[in-house]
Amino acid sequence: MFPTLRLFEVISLPFKRSQLGLFQGKMKQSGNNVPFSKKKTRRSWLPNVHNKRLFSDALQKKLPLKVTARALRTIKKHGGLDEYVLKTSPDLLGWEGMRIRMAVKEARAIKPAAVATESPVQPIS
Prior knowledge:
This protein has 4 helices and 4 strands. By secondary structure, it is α+β, with helices and mostly antiparallel strands. The model has no long low-confidence stretch (mean pLDDT 85).
């Protein structure tokens, strides 16, 4: 229906921190520490997050992002940030990923129009 409807569904995820970067679906996990005495105590594990500056071919600039190690491997597999955000489902992207996806789509839409208006270069004979 509306493009913002899908983004609204992504907002309701329980781990809000994952919406502010490319976390590839990784969430905070919880469990128990179990020592030799078997006295269990609750603890949590956070995703392996790194601050990186990734280059976007469509936008022609580096974007500062919080990225998990899993997302970095997937970005490398897809061949770059642009292909990753275009091919990945919105459920795994979050707010930041959807924002980048929209910017990349707009840049790709503008680029062919600009190329079509340019005159072809004539070779010197």
